[in-house]
Specification:
22% strand; 6-stranded mixed beta sheet; YdhG-like domain-containing protein; YdhG-like; 157 residues; globular
Length: 157
């Protein structure tokens, strides 16, 4: 039996979503990998969502960004976002650490205001990205039970 590479596993996880959502996720992840060439990408195929975090050292607790894929949309998370200055009021969330931006599509990552927030988040990160680290993709967990990855059909009244 051939074992799947981490890339093949992630591709299979993304295939569970609608083609439109999977396309936004794939393009967003490609942009983040290009922007963060020294990150360790940590993948969690969780109950609620598929989460791909970007950490400077492979520790989830030191992660700076993540992309979460839900049945109807993709979200960019700032994992240390609570202290992030947000003059334009882009960040959503009220938790004790994380803030997020729901992405219209992958071009959200190209907006000047989002790029500025990301640059600030990297400067403020508790552990900086290290140029000596080579990008790596790591599948961290796969939940046995998961919510449907595609929107449920709307029932006619």
């Amino acid at each position: 039996m051939k074992t799947e590479s981490a890339e093949q596993q992630l591709d299979r996880f993304l295939d569970a979503f609608t083609p439109e959502v999977a396309d936004v996720a794939r393009k967003s992840l490609a942009k983040l990998r290009k922007r963060l060439p020294h990150a360790i990408e940590l993948v969690y195929d969780n109950y609620n969502a598929l989460a791909c975090g970007f950490s400077p050292n492979g520790r989830a607790s030191d992660g700076v960004f993540s992309i979460a894929v839900y049945p109807k949309y993709v979200t960019l998370f700032f994992l240390q976002g609570v202290k992030l200055p947000d003059p334009d009021g882009l960040l959503q969330g009220a938790g004790s650490a994380v803030r997020h931006i729901r992405m219209k599509d992958e071009t959200t990552l190209d907006r000047a205001d989002v790029k500025a927030l990301m640059a600030t988040a990297m400067k403020m990160a508790k552990v900086p990205f290290d140029d000596a680290v080579t990008y790596q993709l790591v599948i961290k967990s796969i939940s046995a039970k998961q919510r449907p990855r595609r929107p449920l059909p709307v029932k006619a009244k």
